[in-house]
Amino acid sequence: MKRILLLSAVLLLPLFSMAQEAEKTLDVKINEAMQPVTDAVSSVIFAPIYSNDDGLSVPFVLVWLLAGALFFTLFMRFINFRGFKHSINIVRGKYTNPDDKGEVSHFQALTAALSATVGLGNIAGVAIAISIGGPGATFWMIIAGLLGMSTKFVECTLGVKYRKINDDGSISGGPMYYLSRGLGKRGGPWKTIGLALGGFFAVMCIGGSFGGGNMFQINQATTQLIEVTGGEQSFLYGKGWLFGVIMAGLVAIVIIGGIKSIARVTDKIVPAMCGIYVLAALIVIFGSISEVPAAFKAIFNGAFAPAAITGGFVGVLIQGFKRAAFSNEAGVGSAAIAHSAVKTNEPVSEGLVALLEPFIDTVVVCTMTALVIVITGEYHNFTGDTSTEAGIKLTSAAFSSVITWFPYVLTVAVMLFAFSTMVSWSYYGLKAWTFLFGDSRIADISYKVLFCGFVVLGASMSLGSVTDFSDAMIFAMCFPNIFGLLMMSGEVRRDLKSYLSRIKSGEIKAYK
Length: 512
Description:
Blueprint: H1 2-21, H2 23-45, E1 48-51, E2 57-59, H3 60-75, H4 79-82, H5 84-91, H6 106-117, H7 120-133, H8 137-161, E3 164-165, E4 171-172, H9 175-182, H10 189-228, H11 240-255, H12 258-287, H13 292-304, H14 312-328, H15 334-339, H16 347-354, H17 356-376, H18 388-400, H19 406-437, H20 441-460, H21 465-476, H22 478-505
Antiparallel strand pairs: 1-2, 3-4
């Protein structure tokens, strides 16, 4: 397979080189062709259920995600808090049986899923939320992250429960499987409904993997690299495809080996990149330790009594909730695909591991970014521009005000975040692809070749409406997913009760 992928890259290279020569024309044509479709899809997915004259709107998808998160938190009796300590013990390997069926450890499953969410949302998304909603957006972002922990628990428990174990020992799982199998076992029309919802999810997941999980990531990494190496004087300026070819080759090397290879990479990259980023944030925070109480006061006061913020209290609440939902993807269902491959015979154990994701992604990493931005006060200099590039510049400026060489660290972070996100989303897209077209070598190779091709394409063009369309596809995944979770939440609660009682009685033994 390695030879096939490398040969495909060689054959595709001249095509992308030709496309680079006509980059502006290509960009304009693609974006013009995509715009009507993007507008139509986005108007449905992000349809506002409330809007006012100030331009404030509440998209239905946000309400759908948050209502689900609140319901699961209450229905599972605050499992996001009472299961936290046990989750840590599972990740540490205390309850790991190496003989259980699966492909990766609890820790590797966690890092593989985290690698798809910890990224530009933590760097740029938080900055955008604060520049629009003020420091108070941080408070609601944390609340949304805590609620999202319960959603992750439910979806990843079901992911393991209804996963498919293939003849070769590999695992296929995720919403497309628990929607089709979990709802299908009810019989009658539910079988058709479950299959239709699973198929819809798979189609959206494939589109999201090519767009938001691939082209957008490499595009932003390329832009940041060009910016830090001289802008228009950079050796890469006008040659984004070259960086794309290099990254495509690295991605190909990793994804050839499937989830085991991906997990071996992410279990090293994720802790390293989170550690470096949090360390840099702590340097800024401790460097201005006297400003920390004022920053927390601004965050709390701004959450309930925002000043000069469009939409007032509702406006700042929406910005915090929106960025948290867009960052940790709780309810989207993507993480359940990675967690399904874990080595365990207890689905609930992996659901408990998964609830750590929004805590790490939103409560820890996003809050660190927010504190740096609020303490330095740089957000006052960035208003009006809500693009990802502006968000990255704001975060960079905040860190650089204390750590002058931080833009270079940020560039490495963006590239690592982009790379890890791409390899994880390649796995998500592949599992959705094989759900639709079958687990065959041809299906496997065809998807991976396409994915690597989109890496090069994403690095060499401006995305525009293509990114908006892929964002809509990713968040379209939450509609069938949340519906399925609601329908099957009763069995998850029963499974949770059984699991905890067996832990308490000693029937489930600790191995360490």
